[in-house]
Amino acid sequence: MKAIDGLCFSRSPLLSVYADMSVCCEEYENSDKSMLELVFAPCSPVAGSDKNWIAAPDEEIIEATLTELERLFPTEIGPGAPGGGANVEKSTVVRVPRSVYAAIPGRNKYRPSQTSPISNFVMAGDFASQKYLGSMEGAVLSGKLAAEVICDKAANRETKRIKPIHESVTAGEEPKAPIGVKGTYPIAFGGGQEGSGANVYHP
């Protein structure tokens, strides 16, 4: 593919991020072929999809992916492309339903600020308050924001305000037992799994 030369965040409702690995990674370098890696999301109704893609057959996921790629890259993929466009030689679907949390409306108020009520305690992590979802990018940004707080404190500068703790967090509710892990297959522990079948559903 000639239209992309790095990691791309997509405007597609299905393909959230993708990259041509034959351009991005030296070990996959190939001037004649493209090796695409794509994140297909949202993948289930829990995350806002109108279809449970986690439980869909590989063939259906691949077909939907190709349809989206034809729409995104009409000059390179699909019947409208010169010479019929690119052809798929090999494909693999890997399901990781717990790769990120579902960012449902109203949850951001529960994320703590980097500044805390304890003078020598600073929060950092993808769970903390920052503009990204729970992700590597969010963790890095949170770390930078936490470092700013530490530097401000060291220089006796005013730090960013402490985010108020939502009242429901401190309410004296009865403790709830954790849901726990159901099953012993990879997906139950947040790992990826190839293929379809009963084990690819959310436990």
Automatic annotation (TrEMBL):
It holds the Pfam family Amino_oxidase. One of its GO terms (molecular function) is oxidoreductase activity. Residues 10-150 form the Amine oxidase domain. It comes from the Eukaryota. This is Amine oxidase domain-containing protein.
